[in-house]
Design brief:
The protein is α/β, with parallel strands linked by helices. It is 46% helix and 16% strand. It is built from eight helices and seven strands. Strands 3-2-1-4-5-6-7 form a seven-stranded parallel β-sheet, sandwiched between helices. The two termini are 31 Å apart. The mean pLDDT is 96.
């Protein structure tokens, strides 16, 4: 990954932070990002990474808004002189509530954050990748995009759309030697799942063949593999990282 520029969205904590750290350890130059709601954690993560002597930069942007995504890419070009070689679309939110209690503003926020941010970042990165005839896009998704989840209709819809986006885009840009894949996560121990109590967690994991939750490192390792030459013939795939649940 040396001399590679990697953008990891939603990387102030959790899965995104682990992915960023994994690429940094491989020698990549990594841009981490979050919205203003987690800006303090973003700066702390940046300071932690740079304290290890790792090549990193950070930029606050709400990627559900196109103009802010554009500002992020302007920053990357200004900072590095180039566009990202690898884009990891990880930014995401969820509301755990009945569909009939999910108001239009919440619905729109989930779709804009989970789906449109991936579109914006891919849209801005692809002209450079096509010109260079090389590039990798990895979308961090969920098994709920495949099977659906009660009380998370907006989230499941956004992730299902990510799967269609992944497969369609992979076919379109494959002739330009650009690979697009998605990682559909099962239960990963993150802040997003912290709203569930231990009983809920145990009930869910009882149906997982491996009988345990995944870690953010599991996601990071899969991500690095998909971005590596070892996965050079893998594109358009939805990789289930769920302990055998689906």
């Amino acid at each position: 990954m040396k001399n590679k520029i990697v953008l990891v969205t939603g990387s102030s904590r959790g899965i995104g932070k682990a992915i960023a750290f994994a690429f940094l350890k491989k020698g990549a130059y990594v841009i981490i990002n979050s919205s203003s709601s987690t800006e303090e954690e973003l700066i702390e993560t940046y300071e932690e990474f740079t304290s290890f002597g790792l090549a990193c930069a950070y930029f606050r942007a709400d990627l559900s808004i196109y103009t802010e995504a554009l500002s992020l890419f302007d920053f990357i070009v200004e900072k590095t002189g180039s566009y990202p070689d690898i884009v990891i679309n990880n930014a995401g939110i969820s509301y755990y509530k009945l569909f009939t209690e999910t108001n239009p503003n919440e619905w729109t926020k989930v779709i804009n954050t989970n789906l449109n941010s991936a579109y914006y970042c891919s849209y801005l990165a692809l002209p450079y990748m096509i010109k260079k005839h090389s590039g990798i896009i990895i979308n961090i998704s969920s098994i709920w995009g495949t099977v659906g989840a009660s009380l998370e209709v907006a989230y499941s819809t956004s992730k299902s759309a990510i799967h269609g986006f992944t497969k369609s885009l992979a076919k379109e840009v494959g002739p330009s030697n650009i690979r697009v894949n998605s990682i559909a996560c099962g239960w990963i121990d993150t802040n997003m799942n912290s709203l569930f109590d231990n009983e809920d967690r145990a009930t869910f994991l009882n149906d997982v063949p491996l009988m345990r939750a995944g870690s953010v490192k599991d996601v990071a390792k899969t991500c690095v593999f998909l971005a590596s030459d070892s996965a050079s013939y893998i594109t358009g795939q939805i990789i289930a990282l769920d302990g055998g649940l689906t």
